[in-house]
Write a structure and sequence with these properties.
Layout (H helix, E strand, L loop, with lengths): L1 H7 L10 H7 L6 E5 L4 E3 L7 E7 L1 E6 L6 E6 L3 E2 L1 H5 L8 E4 L3 E7 H5 L9 H29 L4 H16 L3 E3 L4 H8 L3 H13 L3 E4 L2 E4 L2 H20 L1
Antiparallel strand pairs: 1-8, 2-7, 3-6, 3-8, 4-5, 4-7, 9-11, 10-11
Helix pairs in contact: 1-2, 6-9, 7-8
């Protein structure tokens, strides 16, 4: 387990724990590793969930069905997958999760997070740290989804892009940054076609608001972007409340 616990030190869910502490916790987590071939399912929609998983190597594709079309996202190395469904009252998977490439995942027991450890390990503080880390990740995800709602209620794509760039400016504290999502993923995030997103970025560049090269962006007129984002954001909130 030495190699595994050393690798887990770099994952968000085990932040703040030493290699020795992680090794002591793994039996309490009923941790088990499984390898999946490309296109092999890890979870299927409707199946019971008794474990969440941590991607050790590779990439998973998460596919959800919705009334307005299917959506998908990827979980890559060090990402947690299935935590919301696993910890929900129903404990039923609401999506299909499939390996994109050869992928190794570590399964972590649902019981560890929802009940007191009965193994007598004496690692109460370490247990609390892992649970705290997971709650932090769930909180960050909830904030992200709340912000996505704000993007989607904006009146047009120009506003969505301005809001997104302003959020990245606040998160990085710099007018120069690299967008964490590539064009394809950002277009999917906004529920628009990639050419439409590219056209809007070019328009903002032509107007002197931004400059960009691939995923690297420089905000040339921060106040101008905020004027677009704030005005339309408030307009969208008024419509939602009405």
């Amino acid at each position: 387990m030495n190699a595994l616990s050393d690798k887990l030190r770099d994952t968000p869910i085990f932040t703040g724990l030493s290699q020795d502490q992680i090794e002591q916790l793994l039996p309490c987590l009923d941790a088990g590793i499984r390898e999946y071939a490309p296109n092999e399912y890890v979870y299927r929609k409707g199946c019971p969930m008794d474990s969440l998983c941590l991607v050790l190597e590779g990439k998973l594709l998460i596919c959800r069905q919705a009334a307005d079309g299917d959506t998908s996202e990827c979980a890559e190395t060090n990402c947690i997958c299935g935590e919301i469904d696993t910890l929900s009252s129903g404990g039923i998977c609401t999506c299909d999760v499939m390996a994109v490439e050869r992928t190794r995942v570590l399964f972590l027991s649902r019981d560890f997070f929802l009940s007191v450890c009965r193994k007598g390990c004496g690692s109460h503080a370490e247990h609390q740290q892992v649970v705290r880390n997971l709650l932090q990740q769930l909180s960050d995800k909830a904030q992200f989804l709340n912000r996505k709602v704000a993007y989607l209620t904006a009146s047009d794509l120009k506003t969505k892009v301005a809001m997104y760039l302003c959020d990245l400016y606040e998160a990085t504290g710099s007018p120069e940054f690299t967008m964490p999502l590539n064009r394809d993923r950002l277009a999917a995030f906004f529920s628009v076609a990639r050419p439409s997103l590219s056209r809007e970025l070019v328009n903002l560049k032509t107007q002197g608001l931004i400059d960009f090269h691939r995923s690297s962006v420089t905000l040339l007129d921060v106040d101008g972007l905020y004027q677009i984002a704030r005005f339309r954001d408030e307009e969208g909130e008024s419509r939602a409340q009405g």
